[in-house]
Amino acid sequence: MADKPTAAATTTAKPPPPPTKPHPNNLNRHPYRPNPTIYHRNHRRNYFCLFCFWSILIIILLLLIATIAGCILYLLYRPHRPTFDITSLKISHFNLTTNADDVTHLTSNMNLTFSTKNPNKRVVFFYDPITINLLVADTQIANGSFVNSFVSEPNNITVVRSQLYGANLLLESSTVNQISADLKKKSGMPLKIYLDTKTQVKIESIKSKKVGIRIVCEGIHSLVPKGGGGGGKSGNSTAAAAVAATVTDAKCNVDLRIKIWKWTFSS
């Protein structure tokens, strides 16, 4: 019996998938690489921020420590400002001279005595030489100085004497009129005295830096020796007796003068 032909098994291979086309947006894209320039820039910025932070923190800590130390010193020693008083002011010469051109000059001679008191128990003041200016109607009419430095010990009173001069000072007509009007009053003309110096403070073994102080004394009134205050063509009071100013109402205020570069601050 003849065998029946068998149909050969046929297998059909599947065609390969079509190649994937790249997306149009990825045609020019490069692989990511970190930018070293940006990394270093951020690194430096972090260092700068840390430096600023620690600098500000250190400054705040130093200010806090200084404040605490100042409070401790104040509570322990209770420091007070020195006080100043005008003891006497004597005018021995006061000559107003007006020439033919109605220009007035002033020549004066005065003796000033003042005192300074240190009210503290354990604080010492060191004073530089003192510059003295005497004013009438906000116009300087005499000046002088105390050229010696001195030390004001605790609970001590120091008396200072100085001579003031005004040599042929040119006065404005408004100042002359004001002086003439004041001299007609029973109390006389009001005077103002400025004392300028530098002082250093010592507490136990701690010394401060020198700081400027200005002492302003007001409430002083005085007449002048006879013949010297009329503002006439020629007034001379050389031989007249000295006149003592009234200083019972005089008050002196002490102001700190702190200078920072071009500016001076008072307190």
Automatic annotation (TrEMBL):
By its UniProt entry, which SUPFAM superfamilies does this protein fall under?
LEA14-like (SSF117070)
Instruction: Quote the protein name from its UniProt record.
Output: Late embryogenesis abundant protein, LEA_2 subgroup
Keyword Thylakoid assigned: no
Any idea which UniProt keywords this protein has? Membrane, Transmembrane, Transmembrane helix
Q: Does the keyword Transmembrane helix apply?
A: yes
Sequence segments annotated as region (Disordered): 1-32
* Late embryogenesis abundant protein LEA-2 subgroup domain ranges (all copies): 113-214
GO BP field: defense response to other organism
